[in-house]
Design brief:
The strands form two sheets. This protein has a five-stranded parallel beta sheet with strand order 7-6-5-8-9. The chain has a four-stranded parallel beta sheet with strand order 2-1-3-4, with helices on both faces. By secondary structure, the protein is α/β, with parallel strands linked by helices. α2 (51-62) packs across α11 (282-301) and α5 (130-144) packs across α6 (162-171). The radius of gyration is 19 Å and the shape is globular. The two termini are 17 Å apart. α2 (51-62) links the parallel β1 and β2 (66-70). It has eleven helices and nine strands. It has helices at residues 12-27, 51-62, 84-91, 107-114, 130-144, 162-171, 191-198, 211-214, 234-240, 248-251, 282-301; strands at residues 40-45, 66-70, 97-102, 119-124, 151-155, 178-182, 204-208, 220-223, 259-261. The structure holds phosphoric acid mono(formamide)ester.
């Protein structure tokens, strides 16, 4: 049984197949409308979410399946002390697949050791968010036409931002991706991602403090929120919260075909005026998230659509 806990749990060929399937669903959603008839997705969200939970739910409903779950630990028996292991053993006897978000890093990995059905990590603490990465990859591939040979700037809270960790790991496996990490020293990308991921894969990377200094080099700018909920020291959060604000003046320094992505929610890091810039693609990005989650559910459940176009399979 396959789970998706880390963005590198899928090979590059498997990611390409998921993205290809998402493209097929975008082209002909009606062909997939009955694929999960009789199947149930459980959404176990111990931490708040808008996009990930609702897009998973929309994905399963659009595939003809049903959804059950909870959106906070306080509304489930977790509040009585039930463990993750026991919870997924129980829920796995009702549902066919589980999407789990947890504030503790590693909780979905633990869940996968006990669950009788596939577990999808929908974000664990400041660690990983692999389905956001699939969303980001589908967005970049759709809007830039490729996943190799481009320069990406990841800007903001690179320490606690799980979407950045997952995306950097995934992109490190594509050729010729140049990474520019833009953060204050306090929120720099974890050293293990540099030493265990980027250096072994010989990717070109650099770390800078100023967005203005590098924005003109970027093909993709990936803005992130400063993750207030992960700070132990609120004074430090207050000091850093507006360290990067993307506004029309900074956009004027960027290439005409750069795209701006953001996993959302945003707070102050992109001003509303930027939303009208055709290079602002973060609201397109969210829709790709639903389609890629449809593709992932079909993949992990092993559901084949007889009506779908057949593609030549690449080796893993
Ligand atoms: N991008 C993302 O994970 O958003 P939510 O926290 O709203 O799910």
């Amino acid at each position: 049984m396959r789970h998706l806990i880390d963005s590198t749990d899928l090979s590059v060929a498997e990611i390409d197949r998921v993205l290809n399937l998402a493209d097929d669903i975008i082209r002909d959603p009606a062909a997939y409308a009955e694929c999960c008839r009789g199947k149930i997705l459980a959404t176990l969200f111990y931490e708040p979410s808008t996009r990930t939970r609702l897009s998973f739910e929309a994905a399963m409903l659009r595939l003809g399946g049903k959804v059950e779950g909870f959106s906070s630990a306080s509304s489930s028996s977790v509040s009585k002390g039930e463990t993750v292991a026991d919870t997924v053993r129980v829920v796995g006897s009702y549902a066919d697949i589980i999407a789990m978000r947890h504030n503790k890093e590693g909780a979905p990995r633990v869940a996968s050791m006990y669950s009788p059905v596939p577990i999808i990590n929908a974000g664990d603490g400041g660690h990983q968010h692999p389905t956001q990465t699939l969303t980001d990859l589908l967005t970049i591939r759709s809007l830039k036409g490729k996943l190799s040979g481009f320069t990406i700037g990841l800007c903001g809270d690179l320490k606690y931002g799980r979407t950045v960790h997952s995306l950097a790991k995934a992109l490190s496996r594509y050729e010729g991706v140049r990474f520019i990490f833009i953060s204050p020293e306090e929120l720099q990308i974890p050293r293990h991602i540099i030493t265990e991921v980027l250096e072994p894969s010989h990717q070109d990377y650099r770390e800078v403090r100023s967005l203005e200094e590098v924005i003109g080099e970027l093909d993709v700018l990936y803005m992130t929120r400063i993750q207030q909920e992960r700070f132990l020291d609120m004074a430090e959060y207050e000091r850093l919260k507006d360290v990067y604000v993307l506004d029309p003046a900074k956009m004027a320094l960027a290439k005409p075909d750069m795209i701006v992505l953001h996993p959302l929610p945003r707070v102050n890091e992109i001003t509303p005026e930027v939303d009208n810039d055709p290079r602002a693609c973060y609201f397109k990005q969210v829709k790709f998230g639903m389609y890629v989650r449809m593709a992932l559910i079909l993949t992990l459940l092993g559901v084949k659509n007889q009506l779908a176009p057949v593609r030549a399979e690449e080796p893993d």
